[in-house]
Amino acid sequence: MSCGTVDPGCRKCRLSKNRTKVVPGVGPCSAKIVFVGEAPGKDEDLKGQPFVGRAGMILDDALEAAGVSRERVRITNLVKCRPPKNRRPRKDEISTCTSLYLDRELQEIAPDVVCALGQTVAKHFLGDSKNMSEMVGKETRIVIAGKPTRFIVSYHPAACLYQRKNLSKFKTSIKFALAAANIV
Ligand code: URA
Asked: What ligand 1 atom has the least distance to the C-alpha of 78?
C-alpha cells in the first residue's frame, strides 16, 4: 500500500520556485504515530527526504533514547518544499500544500497519534490563540477521516540546536507522544 504520494513536479505554490526536490513523508503507511515537522531544510531539499540533516539527527536520537527505531514511525512535514532561506512557510503556502498532500496522507494512514514538531505545526492544527507553553506535553484530540486522533505537541528538534538545555524537554515530549501511541 502506498500513502502520502506527492507530485514531484508540483507547482501549486511559490515554494516550488526555489526547491531542488519535493520532500514526501517517509515511514510505514500502517504507522501508529505520525511526526509532522514544519518544512524541509537544506539537506532535505537536496535528498528529497524529511529530517535527514542536523534536526533529523536530534529526532533520531530522541527516538532511539525511547527505544524506537525511525523505521517504525511516519515522519513528514506540513509543506513539502523548502522555503527560501529556511523562512517559516506562509499561511497560504501551508493551506495549499496541506489540502493537496498532508490532509490526504493523514487520512490514508489514520494514525492513533499525530505529534506536531514545533509551534507552526501546532498552530496549523489547533489555531493561533494558544502559545507553545500551553500546548507542549498536553494531549488534545483532532479528527482525521472521522476518527478522533490523539494530538500531541512537541518542541521542534531545531530548537535544541542552539539551546542544548531544550534537549531533555524535547526527548521527554517525544517519549510522551510515543507512549500515547503505545509503542514504548
Ligand atoms: N525541519 C523540519 O521541520 N523538517 C525537516 O524535514 C527538516 C528540518
From this structure: 3
